[in-house]
Amino acid sequence: MVRNRWLDLTSLMLTSADIVFSNSKVSEKDLECIFTVICNLVTKSESPDEELEMAKLICTKIIQQPSDKPVLRLKILFNLYNLLDNVYCRFYVYMKALNLAMSGKVTEHIIPSCKKIDSFLKEWNLEVQDQRELFLCVANALKDSKSSAKDSFKFLTRYLATFSGEDAYKMGEAKDEAARTIIDFVKAPDMFQCDLLDMPAVAQLEKDAKYALVYQLLKIFLTLRLDAYLEFQAVNSALLKSYGLVHEDCIAKMRLISLVDLASHESGRIPYTLIKDTLRINDDEVELWVVKALTSKLIACKMDQMNQVVLVSSCTERVFGRQQWGVLRTKLGTWRDNIGNVINTIQANKITEDSSQAVQGLMIR
């Protein structure tokens, strides 16, 4: 301490940490106090490099036995995080906390912090490689939580989005995760829209020996209808089972997707018979599937039972790429012109009305 050898002191104090953790006579409160003292040493460091080395020493000791008192170990890491000044040190400790939470099966204690990732990113100012590591780790931490399945998917897509303009070798790192993201999308009963087809990390699977069929499955779910899926399943049923995909669930999702596709291509008026044939259902099931699409907020429509048609006012797009932006631009331009015409008409009527009132005023005089 006199010589300011804080790194050596940290190492010295950590040598007996395992003994302290394994001693049943030491309460968790005392353990936390002991490590609070050790962690506080990082505030004495005289350089960012020394601070990082001290944080690494502490983390290494804390995560050695993640299944033993995992919540306490996680709490110690967060205490350490809050004591650090170096932003990269904070990122390093947070990553260790994520891995500890997964290894110790206590991810529910770190999930709330995952909602703050965007603010963390602004603070940490990470390189692309570190961002990839973070997004993938967060996605893995969230994947086993049913309430966080969508968030896990979002972080997977953010991970894949970092592979833009990379060389083929670097892009190859993302193949497994790209395939996993596709399967997660297909499995999810409440996800009907994504931008995966536009991502280079996903596009590379189209001609990949291992994952070409997975890519083909994605194209079916994002651009085609139920008949295309049934043809694919007839030939590749074993592949679907190997990924844990349930045929009946896929049919249900594709029926909703096919109904959305009809809504976007039939000028807002869909005959019941067309829905029945496209979805391969009975006459008495047509309205049931329309209601399912309504409750899933995939379409906004009314059912004309007398004329046996569905009148669609709006629908969700499965993909939103350049073509969809073009359509939106055209619609906005039309609305702008219409509003301009209305304003001009109102102004013209106002001028006419004002002139009439002026003439009447002269006549009264």
Short description:
It contains 19 helices and three strands. It is mainly alpha-helical and 365 residues long. Among the domains are: 1-63, no CATH class; 252-333, Arc Repressor Mutant, subunit A (Orthogonal Bundle), CATH 1.10.10.
Explained architecture:
- It is a single chain.
- The chain has 365 residues and is mainly alpha-helical.
- Among the domains are: 1-63, no CATH class; 252-333, Arc Repressor Mutant, subunit A.
- It has helices spanning 6-14, 17-22, 28-39, 48-62, 70-83, 87-103, 111-114, 117-124, 128-142, 149-161, 168-171, 175-187, 200-203, 212-223, 226-242, 247-265, 272-279, 286-295, 322-364, and strands at 269-271, 299-304, 309-315.
- The model has no long low-confidence stretch (mean pLDDT 90).
- The protein starts with 5 loop residues before the first helix and ends with a helix.
- It has a three-stranded antiparallel beta sheet.
- Helix 6 runs parallel beside helix 9 (128-142) and helix 16 (247-265) packs across helix 18.
Brief descriptors of the model:
365 residues; Arc Repressor Mutant, subunit A; elongated
What is the tally of helical segments?
19
Helicity, as a percent range: 55-70%
Unreliable runs: none
Instruction: Name the strands of the widest sheet in spatial order.
Output: 1-3-2
**Extended strand count:** 3
Structural class: mainly alpha
Secondary-structure element sequence?
HHHHHHHHHHHHHHHHEHHEEH
C-alpha-based Rg, rounded: 30 Å
At CATH's second level, what is the architecture of the domain at 252-333? Orthogonal Bundle
CATH homology group of the domain at 252-333 = Winged helix-like DNA-binding domain superfamily/Winged helix DNA-binding domain
Provide the CATH top-level class of the domain at 252-333.
Answer: Mainly Alpha
Strand content: under 5%
* Morphology: elongated
What is the typical, i.e. mean, pLDDT? 90
Q: Report the CATH topology name of the domain at 252-333.
A: Arc Repressor Mutant, subunit A
What is the terminal separation in angstroms?
103 Å
Main β-sheet, in a few words? Answer: 3 strands, antiparallel
